[in-house]
Design goal:
The structure holds two protein chains of two kinds. Chain A has helices at 21-28, 80-91, 101-114, 120-127, 137-147, and strands at 2-6, 9-13, 47-50, 53-56, 69-71. By secondary structure, chain A is of the alpha+beta class. Chain B contains 20 helices and 28 strands. In chain B, strand 1 and strand 2 form a beta hairpin. Chains A and B meet through helix 1, helix 2, helix 3, helix 4 and helix 5 of A and helix 7, helix 9 and helix 19 of B.
Amino acid sequence: MTTLTINGKPRQIDLPEDTPLLWALRDHLGLTGTKFGCGMSLCGACTVHVDGEPTRACVTPVSSVVGKNIVTIEAIDQDAIGQKVQDAWLALGVPQCGYCQSGQIMAATALLQHNPNPSDADIDKAMSGNICRCGTYQRIRAAIKQAAGSKESNS
Amino acid sequence: MNKTIDHAELTAENEISIVNISRRGFLKDFALSGFVLAAGLPALTWADETATPTAQDKYGADAMPHGWVDNPLVFVAIADDGTVTIICHRSEMGQGVRTSLPMVVADELEANWLHVKVEQAPGNEVRFGNQDTDGSRSMRHFFMPMRRVGAAARQMLESAAAAQWQVPVHEVHAELHRVIHPATGRSLGYGDLAQAAAKLPVPARESLRLKTPADFRYIGKGQVGIYDGRDIVRGLGQYGIDTRLKDMLYAVVARPPVFGGKVASYDAKDALKVPGVIKVIELPSSPPPAEFNPLGGVAVIASNTWAAIQGRKALKIEWNKGPHGNYDSVVYKTELEAAARKPGKVVRNESDVEAALKTAAKRVEAEYYAPHLAQAPMEPPAATARIVNGHCEIWACTQAPQLSHDQVAKWLKLPAEKVTVHVTLLGGGFGRKSKPDYVIEAALLSKAMHGKPVKVTWTREDDLHHSYFHTVSVERLEAGLDDQGKPIAWLHRTVAPTISSTFGPDSKHQMPVELGMGVINVPYAIANLRIENPEAEAHTRIGWFRSVSNIPHAFAIQSFVAELAAAAGRDHKDFLLELIGLPRRIDPRTLGDNWNHGESPELYPIDTGRLRLVTETVADKAGWGLELPKGRGLGIAAHYSFVTYIAVVVEVAVSEDGILSIPCIDVAVDCGPQVNPERIRSQIEGACIMGVSLATLGEISFKDGAVVQDNFHQYQLTRMDDAPREIRVHLLPTTEFDTPLGGVGEPAVPPIAPALCNAIFAATGQRIRQLPIREQLRKN
C-alpha cells in the first residue's frame, strides 16, 4: 500500500510501484480530469503539478512521488493563479473538444506561478509540450496573457 | 471579446451537467423525471412521419437516414422551477454543437440561457432524426428544425398563459422565460406554465411563428459561452475514455499489424503473470471488406488500464500478414505516379483537351503527392459496454450513435431495443470516431466476460496503427496557355485509393462523393477540360479525415493555379480571379457533380461571385501586393467545399537556412448565415492549425504492410511554437437568415496547404509538390 498526497489529501493506492501516476489517478482514484494522450510524455494531456512543477503523469511512477505534493486539474481552482487561468480560458472561449485543456491549464498555471509576466517566447517554451489537435493555440496564448493581466505582447 | 453568458453564474447544484451520464439513467428517464413539458411524450407519430424522406425531398437533412425531427416534446422539457432542458442529438467533438443547437431552440423559445440545461441524446434516430455527426452539417441541417422546436414550445406556453388569463392568445407574448400580457401587466414564468402547456396539442408546423432575425436574442450574436466550458476547465467533462462503472474491467487489444491479417498463434502465459491481468481473449478477424468490423486480435482484460497494457506487452503473438503484407508507401507512390501518367477513366470531359494542348503557346505540367494521414484525436478511441439481463449498454465517444447501436445489435445478435448507446463528450473526432469498430470491441469483450462492464482503451500506438486512414494520392495536372497566358486546356488525373474500398470489394475508382470534393466540380471557365480517375488499389482501411478528399484536390489545384500564374507571368490573385470568372451560379450537375455535398443544386448552386468575393476580401485584408522583406512571402488559395466558400492568404518567413515560420494567416469565410459566429471563428482557427499541421508534418507511411509511425514523436503535429502566430478570421457579413447555411467544421482545412506552399514559392522560389514539407526547405 502506497500513500500519495493528492490535492492536499492523503490517498492510499495498492498498485505495483512502477505504475504511472496517470493510471493511479484515473483508474484507482477516479480523478479522470488528468487525460491519457500518448503514454510517452509527448503530448502533455496528463500534466499535473508535483511540488509545483508541471509533470507528465503518464511517465511518472507512483513510487517517485511518494511524500510529494501532487495537484491535479480537479483542484487547480484552489490556487489563485489556477483560477485566473480557468477564468481566462472561459472568457476567451479557448476549449474546443476540451480534452487536452486539463493539461494546457496545468502547464499554463505552472508557467504563471513561476513567471507572472511571460513573453511570447516564454509561452512557447512552456506550452509547446502540450498538443492541441483542435488547434486552440492562439486563444491559449491570449488567455495566458489575459490571466497574467496583460493583453499586449511582451516579447 | 464580448461578454459571455456563462453557466458559472448558475447555482452549484447545476454545475455538473454532462459529467454523470455514465452513472445515471440519462435520457431513458427523461419523461419520468418531473420535466413536465415532456410528460405528454407517448405519441411520437409526428417524429415518425418526418423521419422518412419522400421521393421529392432527397436533399439535405431529408436525404439523411431518419431525416430530421422537430417535435418539441422530443427536444424540450420544462421543470416546475422553470429549468428548461434541451436535448442535443448531435455529438460534441469541439465544434460547439452542444452549445449552438440548444441555443437555437432557446432563442425561439425565448428562454433565458442561464436557466437552460443541455442533455445528450442516446443513439436513436427514429426519435431524434439523423445523428451522424460529420460532413459539416449539424447546423446546416438542424437550424430550421431546432427553430421550429423552440417556436412550437413557446407558442404552447403562450397558449397556456392566454387560457389561464382568458384573453386572446395574440394579446400575450413570451419574453425571456416569462409570458406577458402587456394590457394588464400580468406575467407568468415558464415553470408556472409548464404543466398546463404540456397538456396542449403541439401546434401545426404551418402555424408556427418564427422570430424575425431582428428579434434574435442569441442567434448570430456569439455571446453564449461554451455550454461545457465550466466542466472542461475543471477536468470534469466526461469523455468516452473517462467512463467508470462499478466492477468495471479494463481492456486493451493487440490487433493485426497488417490490415487483413489475423492471429496465427499466441502464447498468453507471461501476460497472465502480470499483476492485475485477469484474462486473455482472442477476438476473431473478419474477411474483407473492412466495413466497421473490429480488426480482431488478442485482448487483455485487467483490473486497470496499465496492467492491461503491460499484459499486452507480454503476449507472444504470431501473425498471418494476409494479402497486404507488402504494402510499402515508397513503392506505392511510384505506382500511383505510373497510373497518373497514363490515361484513366474519364469522369468529366469538355471539348477536346488533347487538341487544345497541342495548339497551346505554353504547356505546364506538375504532379503532387499527399500522403496518408491519421485523424489522431487527442482522446484515442475508447468505449465501455455492459450487458445486464440481455440489454447491452454502451458509453462511447462516437460521431455515429445510431450506427454504433446497429452494429452492436448485429454483433451481439440482440434486438434493437436491447441496445442503448450513451454518447459522451468526444475528445476530438475528425472522422475517426464515425467508425464504431472500437465500440463493437467493447461489446464483444463484455459479452465474453459474461456481461461485466468492460472499457476498451486504445493507446496512441493503436490509434495511429489502426485508423481508417485518410487516402494517399498523386494528382497530375497539365494545362495549356494561349499566347495571352490564358488557360485553354486543363487535364487533371486524380489517383487515390477510395473510401468505397472499405465497404466493397475491388473498388479502385473514387466515388462521386470523393470526386465532388473539388476535382470534378472545379468551376473554372476553361474551354477544354478533362478529368480522369485512373485505378488505385487500397491496402489499408481508407476512411474520412476532416474535409476528406478536398485536401489532396485543393492542394494540387490551388498549387497548380499558382504555377500557371507564374508561367504566364501574372499576379497569382488576379490570375485566380480571372480563372474563377465572372459572377455566375453554376448548377453542379453541369460539371458532372450530381452529389453537391448532398444538397439541392437549386438551393446550393456553385456561386462564383461568392468565391470571388472571399478571394478579393482575403487579399485585401492580408495586404496582397505590398512589398515584403526578403525571405517573406504571401500565398493565396480559394476553395469551395461543404457548400461554403473560403479563401486564405498565408504569410511565411523562411530563414536563410530554410527554417519556416508562419507570422499570419488570413481567412475569409462565406458560410451563409452565421448562427454562432464565436464558434465559427474557433472552428476556422482550428482548421488553420490542422491545415498547417498536415502540410508541414503530417504523414502516415507503411512498410511491410504495417504503419511506421508509433506515436507523436514520429507522427508529428503542429505545436504552439510552430503554429501561425496570428490567425485572422474574416466572416463575410450576413444579416439574412433565409439563405441556406454552409458547413463550417471542415471547409477551411483544404486551402491551407496550397496557400502555404504558394507563400513558400513567393518567399523562396521553391515549389513544394510533395506533402509534408518537413525538411524540404532546409539548406544544411
